[in-house]
Each structure stands twice: as C-alpha cells, then as structure tokens.
Design a protein that fits this description.
The complex is a heterodimer. Chain A is an alpha+beta fold. Chain A has one domain. Helix content of chain A is 23%, strand content 29%. Chain A has six helices and ten strands; from the N terminus they run E-H-E-H-E-H-E-E-E-H-H-E-E-E-E-H. In chain A, strands 1, 3, 4, 5, 6, 7, 8, 9 and 10 form a nine-stranded mixed beta sheet that branches. Chain A is globular. Chain B is of the alpha/beta class. Chain B contains five helices and 19 strands. In chain B, strand 1 and strand 2 form a beta hairpin. In chain B, helix 1 crosses helix 2. The longest helix of chain B is centred in the middle third of the chain and has 13 residues. Classes of the chains: A alpha+beta, B alpha/beta. At the A-B interface, strand 2, helix 3, strand 5, strand 6 and helix 4 of A face strand 4, helix 1, helix 4, strand 15 and strand 16 of B. Strand 2 of chain A pairs antiparallel with strand 4 of chain B, so a sheet runs across the interface.
Chain lengths: 218, 328
C-alpha cells in the first residue's frame, strides 16, 4: 500500500508551470515580461532562479497536493470534513534548502481559469516538503492506500495532511504546521488523528476563537 | 571633526555605526542633535539603463557609486560629481544630500563642511551628483534620516523588515507589531510577550494581571492590531473596510521614510489574521505582486502574492478587510 498523490488537472499544472517564472528571480520572467520596478524592505529570503528549481536537463518537476479548506462556522455547526471545500492545488518545485518554492493555484473569476496566485519561498517551504515526504513512514500508510490532501483551517492557523482512504479505512489527519512549531498545543505535530478525534479538538478551539470579536486577529 | 564608521553584521542585516570621533564636541549633526539614519529600501528598477557605463551626462539614476556626469538625480552610495544626487558621500557639485556630501553649495547630510549652504553633518564643498552606475539592477537607497537619538551618538541601520514567527497561536498581532517596531528601531527589539502583556492589560483591565512572558499560554488570545501598534506608538491610521491601491502600496514602501503596510485578512468562514506587506514587483505585462510577511511562516519565509488576489483571495480563503498605516 502507499500514499498516492492524485494527478492535478492539466490546466492547473499548466498554470503553475507557465506562471512560475514570473515569481522567481530574473532576468527572464516568462509571461510576466520585463521587470518594471520592485522594492523590498528586506533582501531575505532570496528568490531562487528557475534553474534552481528545475532538474539539470531543465525539466520543471513538481510535487502536487490538493488543498481543502474548512471554515470555523462549519466546524461550529458540527459538520464533518465532507464540508471542506476544494481551494486549489499547491505545487512544490525544487528539492534543496533555499532552492525550493511552493506555488498555489486556484480557479479564479471571471472565467474560472486556473491561475498561479502565490509563491512562497524560504526555509519553511523545504520543511513542509520534508514533512510530506515523512508521511510514507507511517504504518497506516504502509497498511492502506490513501490519497494525500492538505487541509487548512485558516481561522485556527491549523494545517494538516489529510490522508483520504481509497478503500475501507479511517481517514487520518496529521498536523503539519506552516511555521516551525505547532501553534495549537492541543494538536501534536506529525501525530496521526482519526477524523472524529481531530474534529473534537478543533471544535473546542473554534468555540474559544469565536468567543472573541470578529475584528480581532489571531 | 572626524567620524568613525563601523560596519558589522546584525541579526537582521548590515549595521553601519557612526561614531563622532570627538565626543566632547558639539554633536556632528549640524543642528546639535544625534540622528538615526535608515538606509533603504533596496530597490530593483529595470526602468533605468542597464549598462552601468551608460548613464553619463543627463543620466542620473540610482546606483552604488554613481560616477561622474552632469546628470541630475541619482540616489545611492558615493554618487559622483554632478548636480543633484543623494546618498553616502555624494561627490562634488551642487545639491546632494546624504552622508558626507561633497564640497559645494547645497547638500545636506552628515558633517557639514566648508561652502555655502549645506546642512547636516559635514556637507563638504562642491556639487553633489548623480551619474552612472544605475546598472538597472540593485540600488541601496533612498537614505532616510529616520529620527534623532537624544544626546547620543548617531547610529545607522539598514531598514530591513524582520520576519518573525508568531510565538503563540493567536499572536499574529503581537508578531506584526514586533516587526514594525523593530523595523524602525532595530536596537530596541521588543518581545512578543512584552507587547502582549501591555496590550492585554489595557484590553482587559478587570482581569487578573497578565504575565505574558512568564506564562504565554495565559495570554494566547486574539486582539486588535491597532491596539498593539498604538502601544508601541507606530500606528499612523486605521483604515477599516479599506484596502490600498497598488500605487499607494508603492508609495508607502518607497517614500521618504519607507514603511511596511499592515493588513487584516478576514477568513471567509470566521476568524481573522494580520500580515504585513514589505515589498512589491511590477512587470511590463501588467502583473503586479506584493511581498507578504506572514507571522505564521517560519522565520525568513515569505510569499509573493498577486496584488489582485491579495484583495479577495489571500491563502485561498481570505480577503483584505482593513489597512493599518504605520509610522516611525
């Protein structure tokens, strides 16, 4: 058995490949054309070049994960992960510290075309990639066949790998923080949770979060 | 009068310290007060000539060590002779401002020297100038006099916006405020827990006293960013329900005193989060990107986001709801 990574639609793969050069260091920016102007109040993190994230033969290989989002009001209403909505895909390119990026694609209005909207760079990206690779060591993954998904609960600052079973097995959630540590201490990073256990924890966190005025940030 | 300049690596970037060699003399800043100078932002501008040698007469353009030429404008380190220009050690010629402007009329900066006009510290005789060296790539500038340090020795720091991870699940407001404060005053780094303690004590005066540095979990609760920025005296204005245009973002980032832009992200299904914009890029195709520091990220990690998607689709689920303009 193993962890499968469902194929992304060809249109979103194209959006990532075609759009990526515009988010990297120049001098060539692909469809973006030439750089007119730029400013930054911090030179770090340095942007990789296209050569940094491609194979020696120039091929742009990627590691994709479908992204789902679950909102606080859905959690508060007691809904399950079936209420999570498809937000798009994320694609990792590159495979070395400082030379890896992750791009997020989504279908955007007005004509619902796939578009690369964000590219994240820096040490946190390599850590996320390593965490996803580490999932293959889980005993449950060796015993069953799962699709790999990424679940985000933005209102709680929670991200978790969502191991979605292809056959009769329980879904698993593995918290994977975007930062260096698991901010919500009720969830242990890299530990596996069943869906009921995971939802029980985030329901408690959601109730606490929604106690505060909506204009407050977390 | 002499000035000792020391360059060292700081936690968040290069630190240039300037020490008046004669500490008993009047402060070297011309007006008798010390000053802090921020160097930045780092600008990449392909709209200026690419060939470093191409900007001669009539040129100008920012750059490191712009060379001679009568062209005006120019900002950078060691602009050569010619009118205009600002930066560190502008060469001879009128105009010019920065550190040790060359001899001649006009000019302002550190160490005003002989010659008419001039203010600041040692503007020397002669014209300042712009010149070649644009290179079309990297510019350090503009040079900004960011403030005075009463009775002290002037010091100089580059304006790097520090990216720090939020230390608690609900402390995005403390992390963003810490970064803004550290951007303007790098030498006086506040901790997130100290910011949290002050903000929450004001927010909940009837509660048990907060000891956020001793017990951060006790203080791990959401709060408004404007309250935290007010505590550090870095809030210029709160724009509820308003976003900035791309041009307004550029103006904040590249003005006389470059400033980050703080943003509230409202999630589609409940909750909110604070981030900061600290850079931008725009292309001939019309593509416009903003550089986002998100306190959820690991230190040193950042996101380039299409401007139009930051407005209503940040992190695939949030919209830009409120804006917080900051000040030094």
């Amino acid at each position: 058995m193993s962890l499968e990574k469902p194929s992304a639609p060809s249109a979103t793969v194209y959006a990532f490949h075609a759009g990526l050069p515009a988010f990297l260091a120049g001098p060539l920016y692909g469809q973006a054309g030439g750089l007119v102007s730029a400013a930054s109040l911090n030179p770090n993190p340095a942007l990789p070049t296209l050569a940094d994230v491609t194979a020696p033969d120039g091929t742009l290989e990627h590691d994709q994960q479908q992204v789902f989002v679950l909102g606080l009001q859905d959690i508060q209403a007691g809904r399950t992960l079936a209420a999570a909505t498809e937000a798009g895909w994320r694609f990792f390119a590159g495979n070395a510290p400082g030379k890896v990026v992750v791009g997020y694609t989504s279908q955007r209005p007005p004509n619902a075309t796939w578009k690369l909207t964000t590219v994240t760079v820096g040490p946190g990206v390599f850590s996320s990639l390593q965490q996803s690779h580490g999932l293959n060591a889980l005993q449950q993954v060796k015993d069953n066949l799962y699709d790999l998904r990424l679940l985000k609960i933005p209102g709680l600052n929670v991200e978790a790998f969502w191991l979605f079973p292809r056959f009769d097995a329980p879904a698993l959630l593995v918290p994977s923080p975007a930062g260096p540590d698991q901010l919500q201490e009720a969830l242990a990073s890299q530990q596996t949770y069943t869906e009921p256990d995971f939802l029980g924890i985030v329901q408690t966190l959601t109730a606490k979060r929604l106690d505060y005025p909506p204009q407050y940030g977390s | 009068m002499g000035i000792d300049i020391k360059v060292s690596n700081g936690t968040d970037g290069l630190i240039i310290s300037v020490q008046n060699a004669n500490s008993n003399s009047a402060n070297s800043n011309g007006d008798g007060s010390g000053g802090a100078i921020v160097i930045g932002p780092i600008v990449i501008d392909d709209s200026v000539p690419v060939d470093p040698s191409s900007a001669g007469p009539g040129g100008g353009g920012p750059g490191i060590s712009p060379g001679p030429g009568p062209g005006g404008g120019g900002t950078g380190i060691s602009p050569g002779p010619g009118p205009g220009g600002s930066g560190i050690s502008p060469g001879p010629g009128p105009g010019g401002s920065g550190i040790s402007p060359g001899p001649g009329p006009g000019g302002s900066g550190i160490s005003p020297g002989p010659g008419p006009g001039g203010s600041g510290i040692s503007p020397g005789p002669g014209p300042g100038g712009g010149g070649f060296g644009s290179g079309g790539i990297v510019v350090i500038g503009p040079i900004v006099i960011a403030g005075a340090r009463a009775g002290g020795v002037p010091y100089f720091v580059p304006s790097t916006f520090p990216l720090k991870h939020q230390e608690e699940a609900n402390w995005c407001w403390a992390a963003v405020t810490q970064a803004v404060r550290a951007f303007f005053y790098p030498a006086a780094l506040l901790t997130q827990c100290s910011i949290a303690g002050t903000v929450l004590a004001a927010e909940y005066p009837a509660s048990t006293p907060f000891s956020c540095c001793q017990d951060p979990d006790q203080c791990d609760i959401p709060a408004p960013l404007q309250d935290a920025l007010t505590v550090t005296n870095n809030l210029r204005s709160t724009m509820q329900g308003q976003v900035l245009t791309f041009e307004q973002i550029k103006a904040e980032l590249t003005g006389t005193t470059p400033k980050p832009v703080c943003v509230r992200i409202e999630w589609a299904n409940g909750g909110a989060h604070f981030i900061a914009i600290y850079g931008y890029r725009e292309f001939t195709s019309g593509i416009r990107q903003v550089l986002v520091a998100d306190p959820l990220f690991q230190d040193g990690t950042a996101a380039y986001v299409l401007y139009e998607d930051l407005l209503d689709f940040y992190d695939q689920y949030g919209r830009w709801s409120d804006t917080f303009l900051v000040k030094a």
